[in-house]
Each structure stands twice: as C-alpha cells, then as structure tokens.
Amino acid sequence: MNVAFLHFHLKPGGVTRVILDQAQSCEELGYKYTILAGENLQNLPGVQVIPQLNYDGTGSDALGPQGLGQIIFQTLARAPWPQILHIHNPLLAKNSQLLPALNELFGLLAQAGAPTQILFQVHDLAEDGRPAAYSPEAYPTKVFYGFLNSRDRELFTRHCPDSRGIFLLPNRVRPLPEPEDFAEPCSETGQVVKSGQSLGPDQSKQAKNPNDCILPRLFHHFTGSSNNTIDQYLVYPVRAIPRKNIGEALALTLLLERTGIAITLPPNNPADQQQYQYWKQAAQDLNCPVAFEAGNTCTFEPLLAQAAAAVTTSVQEGFGFAFLEPWTIGLPVTGRYIPGVCQDFSQAGLKQDLLYEDLKIPVDLVDMDLFENTWVSLVQESIRIYQVTGTNDPHILQTLAQEVPGIFSQRFQGDFLDFGALTRESQTQVLQHLRQAEHRWAIRSMNPILETMETLNQWKQDRGKAILQHNRDLTLDHWGAAASAKNLERVYQTMMNSQRPGYAQKTEPVDKQGLLMDYLDPWKFMAGGR
Question: In the list 167, 289, 505, 512, which could disulfide-bond 260, CB 3.0-4.6 Å?
C-alpha cells in the first residue's frame, strides 16, 4: 500500500510527532509512504516540500486554491499513486487556501480515475475555542475522518449527514525516558535514593552532587523555612498556556500540606505571555510553592523521576498525553479529570482514582456579581467572535449570547462552585482567601482527594503499587507502538474496502452551525482562569 501524508509544516511539536509515528507504523506494516509539507526544517527523509502549504502569511497564497490543488496533484503524480491520502488538521484555517484547494484536488483525482481514498485527521476543531482558526469553507462529507477522542467523533458524527466513515485514531504513546539511575524522591539527608535501595548509616554520610536532588533546587525558599517545609513536589509537564488552568495549580499548593508544584515550560506564543506573567506574579505575591520553567532549570528525566506524581489542572485537551505518559515510568497522575478525554481512558481500563471531577469551593468565597459579569462577558465574546466568519446564521448566535446571563443564574447555584469554572478574577479572589487556615480546611473537607494527593509517596509504596503496574502495562499495550500500528492498519483497510473513492460522491456538507452550537454550549464552558 502507498500512503501520502499532508500537513502545513513539519515543525517540532504535536502534529509532526504524530505524522512521524504514523510513518514509522507504515514502515512496520510494509507500506510505502511520502510526506507533503510546507517546510522541512528538520531535513526529515521522505518529504516533498510544497511551500504554499504553509501557514497564511508565509507566501502560501501565491498560487490561489486552484493552483495549490494542481501542485498537490502533480506532486502525488510523481510517485506511485497513493491509495491513502492522509491529511492532518485540514479543517483549521491556518492556511485559508487549503480546503478550497482540496476541492480542486478532488476534481483532478476524479478526472484521472486515481484509486485514492481521503482521510482527514482532526487533531483540533476550531469550534472548540479556537475562533481564529475557524474556516469559512464547508467541511466535506465525501472523505473519511479520524478523531483523537470519542467526544469529538460523536459530536462531529451528529452533524455529518453522509459520512463514509468516522474513526477513532488516538495518538501513539511513547514511554517517557528514565535517568540511568532511576531516582526516588530525596531523603531527609538530601541524598537521592535509587529505586529499591535504602540508605544505610555509611551511605547517608556520603556526599552527592547537590544538583542530583531536585526538590531543594526548585523550592529552596520554602525548604529552609519550618513554616513552609516542602516534602514532595508534583510535576506539571506542560507549557503554561491559558487552557492549562494555572490558577488551579496555585490553589493546590496552598491547599496541600508540604507540597510544591513544578511547571516545566513557559508558553511559546507571545499572546499567552500576559496571562502567564500574571500567574507568576500571583504565585510570588501569595507565597505559593510553584517552580515555573522547571524544565529549563533541571534535566527532564530526574525532574520526573523525583516527583511524587504528575499533575494536570487543564480544562481542555485534544488527546491527553499528560494523562497517560507518566504511567510509562511508574509516575502516577493526579489532578483534574476531563470527561471528554478521560472517558476513553476509563473505558479502556485505566484506573484514574487520583483525579477529581471538580475542585469544590464555598460559594461565599466568591463575589458572585464580579464572577457573573466577567464570566458572561467571556462567554458572549467567544460567541461573538464566531459571528464574523459569515458562515453561520448571526441571529442564532445572537440568541445564544442573549441567553448566557440566564444560563449563568441556573448553572451556578448551590453552596459551592468548581474552581476550574471560575474566571481569572474570581480564582484570584479565592486564592487570597486561602491565606486563611479556616478557609483552607473548609475546602479540604469538601475535597477528600486532597488528602491522598499530599501523601502520594506513601500511596506509591502500599495500595498504589498494583495500580502503577496495571496502568503502565495498559498504557503501553493499548496506546503503544504495536497497538497504534494495528489501529492504523484497520482504518486504512476499511477505507480500501470501500466501493468507490470518496471524492467521487456528491453529498451534503457538514452542518457547521449545529456543530459550532454544540461546542459553544455555555452549560459546559470552563473558564479555567481566563
């Protein structure tokens, strides 16, 4: 079988990693492949560069949609015709020429009688909080689709009237690297203890390189104070972008006894810097034991190895590597459960008892007028932005925006709020209240998971042992290299067994209005400190 992959670029990062994993699966399956991309800065083999595939603003509009469709066709024709054309993230308007260019390509393929099936793999839907990437073009139904999680697949299927096949295509999970001498959290002497080894009297006197012990390096301002002693830390292995809900990470450090959090990397996008600096300043003002940019301070492998657990407070993910990868090195995962992502992991058998579905906060700690004003404005603005595309009925979106205040009043009733649903202003207000012990203990009593989170080193030694092994084995078996190759083969074979190429069909387009309304649902909106 011949496969061609197509994407905007091959920059280091998530989608490029997935393409390379799929290319490796093709090699293992005995398939031939080529990759079409707008650039190849890493000089990867098997890549055909079409500069006009790159993002808008890089000269990608030089040919126009018709010309781009023709050059894609000509590039495919120079190699054996691919039976599968596997296109990554074409629904995002990162290159506004691509979707209309693909319609041109479909016509050329039909004229040539090419035996090619088309697969759109959707990593991110613009409807899911990415209005800048929302395309004015129709989404075709004459192709196959692959999604990273069941939620996106099910919502898309609901609005796709004549789909030929919508598959679940989860990402491949690679085992995280371990240091050569796997290290458990440091002992009270400051010496790293190798896994399975105890410190005898002589060993405890032996000097070690102080850089071997991560905890005091990251939290030296706290480890030297009897009032703020840090005995363990949780590692948050992410770039601190807004949807990662950094305010909640700060809240955990104030609620958990003797526990710090190490956040590995800053955001790359300049647009995210203002919010990032806000939370860094808030952590300093509130004396939160948070180590920002820990990945730039410490080597990644020991940073993971000496952590009590990995933590995630994110309110939005596509696939959710953070929920799976740490288990591959025996590192438990704690933090916030995201239903649309984590339900796939639960159904596969992953044990996620260390995750919480909400972080309950007494309602009297929040100025509800301030919360309502900022939350309603945030939701209405997110709706308004989608009105400017010209592809949706503005009256329907206006009606939804008008309903937001009423939805707020109905949704946020009762004695407690979920911290992850709060806006930045309200999260900050709660953090200030957490300076007082009475409020901390009130919240702890409402969230029993916090007691487990602050004793994770002990949890790993007793009742967590079996879970660590189970989740490690399950992750590698269910999302590892062999399973990913088998799933890709199943999808490709299903496509090949289809009676006729998708581009030859005349079908109704996806109901983009309905799809957008599902994702804009204010009942499900999580502000996450934005």
Answer: 289
Write down the pTM of the prediction: 0.90
Inter-residue contact 123 to 133 (CB < 8 Å) = no
Q: Give dist(CA 423, CA 315) in Å, integer.
A: 12
User: Using an 8 Å Cβ cutoff, are 435 and 237 in contact?
Assistant: no
For 193, the enclosing helix (H) or strand (E) is strand 193-194
Q: State residue 42's pLDDT score.
A: 86
Cα–Cα dist 147/91, whole Å: 12
Give the model confidence (pLDDT) of 28-86 as tens digits: 999 999 999 999 988 888 899 999 999 998 877 788 999 999 999 999 998 789 999 99
Number of H helices, E strands in the chain: 21, 17
367-373 own/partner pairs: CB under 8 Å, 24+ apart: 367/426, 367/429, 368/412, 370/425, 370/426, 370/429, 371/412, 371/417, 371/422, 371/423, 371/425, 371/426, 372/405, 372/408, 372/409, 372/412
Facing residues of 57 across strands? none
Q: Pairing relation of β-strands 355-356 and 360-362?
A: unpaired
- The C-alpha angle with vertex 423 and arms to 257 and 275, in degrees rounded to 5, equals 85
Residues found in the chain: 530
pLDDT > 70? residue 330: yes
User: 325 Cβ partners below 8 Å, 6+ apart?
Assistant: 173, 174, 176, 237, 310, 475
